């Protein structure tokens, strides 16, 4: 076990080719590399004393029988909203009983490949405005809409007609990004992919391959790094996770192509290198990741912050990674949990304190669904 943990992020198999999709992979091998001088393979500075090892306990299965779950949004007062990528629907899950109620269908969703109904987020003013935000792939682009949620209406009719706040995000069969989250500043953040056109990630005029920051109405947020622009950071291949730590710093994972998946600390205006850099390249003008993994062992989607660590769900890697942090540095070698036990893992969100909600992703066309798939699990972590 000790040897495994010490080598956890120098992993031995490479991942996908440009034709296979970032979550599938073709099994090609690649030589190790990319660690920075003076650091361990994980990115932790040598000589640091690692903290006590973490742990994960699956407390219970909250719900099962979900179809291609992608976004997960806790509601104030209880319950989880879950988006179905392929069905284009949102269901409410009662976290006490596991009962599922269809809230409604988002019109205009064109599910294909990795596209469909992706991230969802609840307004920070939900108790007064009852707004739910969704990121989805249409027939022509990716877009963000908001809808009023009224649980007093009949089942399946509880969402208002969508109000489109942003359109024109590049779409593709793969690399659609799709995560939505409200930050501590009450601004809406969205992660986008570059639809297999790497140069879009370096084009400040394109919405592809970026992390965007906007007002709840879809306008460029005050204080954005580029004038009159939604772009918060650039040079991303395909980000599907956003989370803030206890100091309100933004973290995001990144799908690599053939060599390195990444965990990045996001700086306003930061350029994360794609397609010119993958992993810790040490190139001027690009921000290096804080940690990196071989793509066969991660293919990261959702992340959450809890108990002093980032928790990162792996699709192809079929595991949950714990990345302990000390300020802006990784303080000990990342640890893998649940490896192969529940299959592909898509989304992880904080349930408060030492608890997380975690969704499996076996019904997305790349898994091997078993009885009860897909599931939401409640975890206790430290």
Automatic annotation (TrEMBL):
Superkingdom in the source lineage: Bacteria
Basic and acidic residues: compositionally biased ranges: 372-382
Glucose/Sorbosone dehydrogenase domain ranges (all copies): 66-366
Signal peptide: 1-18
Keyword annotations: Signal
Residue numbers spanned by region Disordered: 22-54, 358-382
Any Pfam family: GSDH
Protein name stated in the entry: Oxidoreductase
Source organism of the structure: Streptomyces ruber
């Amino acid at each position: 076990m000790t040897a495994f943990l010490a080598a956890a992020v120098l992993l031995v198999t490479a991942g996908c080719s440009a034709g296979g999709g970032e979550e599938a992979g073709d099994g090609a091998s690649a030589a190790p590399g990319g660690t920075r001088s003076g650091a361990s393979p994980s990115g932790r500075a040598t000589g640091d004393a690692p903290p006590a090892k973490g742990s994960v306990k699956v407390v219970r299965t909250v719900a099962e029988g979900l179809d291609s779950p992608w976004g997960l949004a806790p509601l104030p007062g209880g319950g989880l909203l879950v988006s179905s990528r392929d069905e284009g629907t949102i269901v409410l899950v009662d976290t006490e009983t596991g009962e599922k109620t269809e809230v409604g269908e988002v019109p205009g969703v064109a599910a294909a490949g990795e596209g469909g109904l992706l991230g969802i987020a609840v307004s920070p003013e939900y108790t007064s405005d009852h707004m739910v935000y969704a990121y989805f792939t249409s027939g022509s682009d990716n877009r963000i809409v908001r809808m009023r949620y009224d649980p007093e209406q009949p089942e399946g009719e509880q969402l208002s007609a969508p109000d489109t706040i942003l359109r024109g995000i590049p779409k593709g069969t793969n690399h659609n990004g799709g995560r939505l989250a409200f930050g501590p500043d009450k601004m809406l953040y969205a992660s986008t992919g570059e639809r297999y056109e790497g140069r879009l990630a370096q084009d400040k005029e394109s919405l592809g391959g970026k992390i965007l920051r906007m007002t709840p109405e879809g306008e460029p947020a005050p204080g954005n790094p580029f004038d009159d622009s939604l772009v918060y950071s650039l040079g991303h291949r395909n980000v599907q996770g956003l989370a803030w730590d206890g100091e309100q710093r933004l973290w995001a994972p990144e799908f690599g192509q053939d060599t390195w998946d990444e965990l990045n600390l996001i700086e306003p205006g930061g350029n994360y290198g794609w397609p010119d850099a993958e992993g810790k390249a040490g190139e001027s003008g690009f921000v290096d990741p804080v940690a990196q993994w071989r793509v066969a062992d991660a293919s990261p989607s959702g992340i959450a912050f809890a108990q002093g660590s980032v928790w990162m769900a792996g699709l192809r890697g079929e595991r949950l990674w714990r990345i302990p942090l000390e300020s802006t540095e990784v303080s000990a070698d990342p640890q893998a949990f649940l490896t192969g036990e529940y299959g592909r893992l898509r989304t992880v969100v904080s349930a408060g304190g030492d608890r997380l909600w975690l969704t499996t992703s076996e019904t997305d066309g790349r898994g091997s669904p078993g009885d009860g798939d897909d599931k939401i699990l409640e975890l206790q972590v430290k």
